[in-house]
Write a structure and sequence with these properties.
This protein has 18 helices and 17 strands. The chain is α+β, with helices and mostly antiparallel strands and 734 residues long. The protein starts with a helix and ends in a 27-residue tail after the last helix.
């Protein structure tokens, strides 16, 4: 097809009176009247353009990718997680598993045996270059996806090319695609979600056609994958959700029939809610199936889950708890941990020894269960006597020999409605405040005989004197309590409350036979799935920045669009070290920021002119075409950037990359729009080429820091464009 023929196909259709939104079945009369303004036509030339853009993007992502022969930035974390998948060893992380499963796949394909822990220099038997190339493939995919997205948004071909070039020539996006990290898969599935939504919007006049269903299913699949890479992917789901609500409301306002409207609603529920949920859950199912061995992260999971793992210390232990046994007790409230004490006193209240909950394995978590006043303790003559429902017991801290104690005299330091819980007294003291009643609430094994069992029995510890329940509600103590979880005695809490329920996690008694706990416990995928997501959420919330300390890696969201604080990706910045600097392309970052800030003003001025009945500045249908593209791109930037201001967790500059992707496409979209409105003929091509050449020139200026620089960093000091950059000297570091 010749360029002349193509231009004819690109010619605008005659003016048509457009509805505010068109989402009608293809067989209706309205379908023919709902074709969007300037519908792009796919031809062979587009294929060649995509191939050229992909090759250019591949060069920027793969050139000298193996130059740094040691783990760089978070390769130390995510490469290690991939190795744990290879070893099938359970671990804990704050992110969902999909992107890390892809890292593991790259390690399997590279022949890694899982023995390297991703610290220091890569050994000869680890094909780290292939692993990086596998990850870079997702970064390479951004260029064709950007082109396809803009094509679906009915932008002109030169604007589609410009958008793909902007994505290719951003230094920050490029450098984060060159290592074994999660950002490249996250960006790829974010871009795939946007592309599929644009395709769905472009095919809305063919509702329920095969193409329409294909785009709808592709949208749902992309949303499931992006959410299961990192939770920031839920911002993409939020964008698509708002778009869908707007779409349905417009259809309702266009007075579609109830049956047609219900069909649209149910189709979106199936593809945009059910499909992403199934994919998200399926990724965790694979995660659980692969990781079947005990590892460093299983202590955060419930005891029943831990006991089911191969090699878990909880897998073989005495089943029935007897007096004089050594126990560790876990609160069922997620995030609380194990009942704990240490030789530190409360600075307020009774000033007796502290009782807390601690989330990690420690000898201070060990307790001895005994009768009141110590009867039967260390009994080696009579047969072990099981602890039963309703028994009154006392608990002695094994390390300090103090007893679990509560009283009415003082209230808990944080939960002031509850009584204080301390470690006080010695075994054998006749102190009723050391006595607790075992009240079994739920038995999860088949052996429901009223006896206390390890792992499977959920029970309350009721204080005999005050009738309150031992409680751990994940409330943190101040620094004098080492930020551990407060343990109190709840006067009003329900016996079914998770904060008041306890299980015996570990049971030691040499006089009792050990049982295979894997045959005793009942695992539920749904319960494990929910529990792991709760634990991930708590771990995310615990990543709080320390404002009193300077950290050259961290940056605040307000600084990202201005590119104030780029990040060094290597600890050592000496001559001879391969140095990588996560700095974006300043031309693209600053211009896209201006574009995102001014777009609402542009929309406001349009509506103001319309309200004043000024002469139309858009041809019929052109306003709808502009709005359909702008709302997706600007909305994507807004949804992926603004929520970070409400997050309390630590943030880094690469967190803005998904928002930047939308901003770069919006920049190309606005350039295309302004060229149509202001310029004519060849001058439009001159402007587009100027932008492309300028972006390439700035990319090349900073490319030594993107591909890795081994010389003295002072040689690049002229590349420090802002005084806040720590390129060659960090004035805040001592």
């Amino acid at each position: 097809m010749s360029p002349t023929q193509h231009n004819k196909e690109k010619k605008e259709p005659p003016p048509v009176q457009h509805k505010s939104f068109a989402a009608y079945p293809a067989h209706t009369d309205s379908a023919s009247a709902s074709v969007p303004y300037q519908r792009n036509v796919w031809d062979r030339q587009d294929r060649w353009i995509i191939l050229a853009l992909t090759l250019l993007c591949a060069f920027t992502r793969l050139y000298r990718i193996g130059r740094a022969k040691k783990t760089t930035w978070d390769e130390a974390h995510f490469g290690k997680f991939g190795a744990l998948y290879v070893n099938r060893t359970f671990y804990h992380d704050v992110h969902p598993p999909t992107a890390k499963l892809l890292v593991a796949l790259s390690e399997v394909l590279a022949g890694h045996n899982g023995t390297f822990n991703f610290k220091g220099e890569y050994p000869p038997y680890v094909n780290y270059v292939f692993m990086r190339m596998f990850n870079a493939a997702f970064g390479i995919g951004l260029a064709p996806l950007a082109y396809l997205t803009c094509h679906q948004l009915n932008m002109r071909r030169r604007a589609c090319v410009l958008a793909a070039l902007f994505v290719t020539l951003d230094n920050a996006t490029c450098v984060m695609s060159r290592f074994i990290l999660l950002d490249a898969p996250l960006l790829f599935f974010t871009a795939a979600s946007l592309c599929s939504v644009a395709g769905l919007q472009n095919s809305r006049h063919q509702a329920f056609s095969r193409m329409w269903w294909r785009w709808l299913l592709f949208t749902g699949a992309s949303l499931g994958l992006v959410a299961s890479c990192k939770w920031v992917g839920f911002l993409t789901i939020g964008l698509v959700g708002l778009y869908t609500i707007d779409e349905l409301l417009n259809m309702y306002s266009d007075c579609l029939g109830i049956k047609t409207l219900a069909s649209h609603f149910l189709a979106r529920v199936l593809c945009l809610i059910v499909v992403p949920l199934v994919i998200y859950a399926a990724c965790f199912k694979v995660h659980f199936v692969v990781l079947n061995r005990s590892g460093p992260g299983d202590s955060r999971m419930p005891p029943a889950f831990q006991a089911s793992l191969i090699g878990s210390p909880l897998g073989h232990q005495p089943f029935t708890v007897a007096y004089s046994s050594q126990l560790t007790l876990r609160s069922l409230h997620s995030g609380s941990g194990l009942l704990h004490s240490h030789a530190h006193r409360y600075p307020i209240g009774s000033q007796q020894q502290q009782i807390t909950c601690y989330g990690h394995s420690d000898t201070n978590n060990e307790w001895i269960i005994a009768r009141p006043q110590g009867e039967g303790f260390n009994d080696t003559i009579s047969a072990p006597e099981p602890v039963r429902h309703g028994d009154v017991v006392s608990l002695m801290h094994r390390q300090t020999k103090a007893m679990l104690h509560s009283h009415r005299a003082h209230m808990a330091p944080v939960s002031t409605k509850d009584y204080e819980v301390t470690a006080y007294g010695k075994l054998g003291w006749k102190d009723r405040n050391n006595n607790w009643r075992i009240e079994i609430v739920n038995e999860q094994s088949k052996v429901a005989n009223g006896e206390l069992h390890a792992i499977t029995t959920q029970f309350n510890l009721r204080h005999v004197s005050t009738n309150c329940l031992l409680s751990a509600a994940a409330v943190k103590l101040p620094s004098w309590g080492f930020r551990q979880t407060e343990v109190s005695c709840s006067r009003e809490g329900s016996s079914q409350s998770l904060a008041n329920l306890w299980v015996v996690e570990k049971h030691v008694n040499s006089r009792l036979p050990k049982a295979d706990m894997r045959s005793m416990v009942k695992r539920s995928f749904l319960r494990d799935f929910v529990q792991l997501n709760i634990v991930m959420a708590r771990s995310n919330n615990a990543l709080i920045p320390d404002r009193d300390k300077y950290n050259h890696l961290e940056s605040d969201p307000w600084s990202w669009p201005l590119l104030l604080y780029p990040m060094r990706m290597l600890g050592s910045w000496k001559k001879g070290d391969i140095k990588y600097y996560e700095v974006g392309n300043p031309l693209l970052w600053w211009s896209s920021t201006i574009c995102c800030v001014l777009l609402p003003l542009q929309i406001f001025l349009y509506f103001a002119r319309r309200q004043r009945k000024a002469p139309a500045v858009w041809a019929p249908g052109e306003a709808l075409h502009y709005w359909n593209g702008a709302k997706l791109l600007w909305g994507g930037w807004f949804m992926h950037y603004v929520p970070f201001f409400a997050m309390g967790r630590v943030t880094y500059i690469h967190h803005v990359l998904p928002a930047l992707y939308f901003a770069l496409l919006l920049l190309a979209f606005e350039i295309d729009y302004l060229c149509r409105r202001i310029l004519q003929g060849r001058l439009q091509n001159v402007i587009v080429c100027t932008w492309a050449v300028a972006a390439l020139a700035v990319f090349c200026w900073f490319v030594p820091l993107t591909f890795g620089y081994s010389g003295a960093i002072e040689e690049l000091k002229y590349r420090q464009w802002l005084p806040t950059w720590n390129l060659y000297r960090d004035k805040y570091m001592v």
